[in-house]
Amino acid sequence: MTKQMKIDRGAGIAIWRQIAEWLKAEIGSGTFVTGSKLPTEADIAARFDVNRHTVRRAIAVLVNEGILRADQGRGTFVAAAPMNYPIGSRTRFSEIVSGQHKTPSGRMIGSALEEADALLAAELKLPLGVQLIRLETLRVVDGTPVLVATSWFEQARFPALVAAYAETGSFTKALKQCGLDDYRRLETRVSAELIDPQDAAFLQIPEGQPILIVESTNVDDAGQPTQYTRTRMAADRIQLVIES
């Protein structure tokens, strides 16, 4: 973008607002399509003969409005509409994403063994101190990270789970390899908080941005809890749909 555009400095409209409106018009006309990367702040500033701080403010406003998405280290992109994510008795990430003609993927970003504290023991209906597997995962849709999750399982029941998930990238497939053919969602709790720096890096969103917190418990056919998960979702990329 080298062609310089003129700003109407006598219009009584803030310069950053004029740039924001221009960006929205370009998006509306299809010049910048959903998922496309915007020119850099420096390029836009040169086009309008303004400083980069003015451009940064215009972009920040559009990010807050959900029109743009700023990914740390990658740039600014035209945001897609949030993906619907149904929450019901059978909630399966890969099935939900594939059903919307998108490509799901996932990878393990950490694992450890730890003893069940009071919270985990209560959620999994296990004695205090029982050895648990903690699995940290990152889930991606069409190349864009959408959620980070921490899940806990009884280690004695699923001793090969870490290797199975590393191989399959799917909890459903990994648990099936470990002898659990099916499971259902027992409970889901939704809240919100500000993202921490580590999750912000994985989700490629600014630190301090609000995110959705989804705590869930899955059970087997006998009603015994098999998995407790605390998920952190990028709020501008996923729209929860509660099924009745």
UniProtKB/TrEMBL annotation:
Organism (species): Roseibium polysiphoniae
Alphabetized InterPro entries for the sequence: Bact_HTH_transcr_reg (IPR050679), Chorismate_lyase_/UTRA_dom_sf (IPR028978), CP_lyase_PhnF (IPR012702), Tscrpt_reg_HTH_GntR (IPR000524), UTRA (IPR011663), WH-like_DNA-bd_sf (IPR036388), WH_DNA-bd_sf (IPR036390)
Entries under NCBIfam families matching the protein: C_P_lyase_phnF
Protein name: Phosphonate metabolism transcriptional regulator PhnF
Keywords annotated in UniProt: DNA-binding, Transcription, Transcription regulation
Domain of life, per lineage: Bacteria
Domain HTH gntR-type: 13-81
Gene behind the chain: phnF
Record carries keyword DNA-binding: yes
Keyword Kinase attributed: no
Coiled coil: none
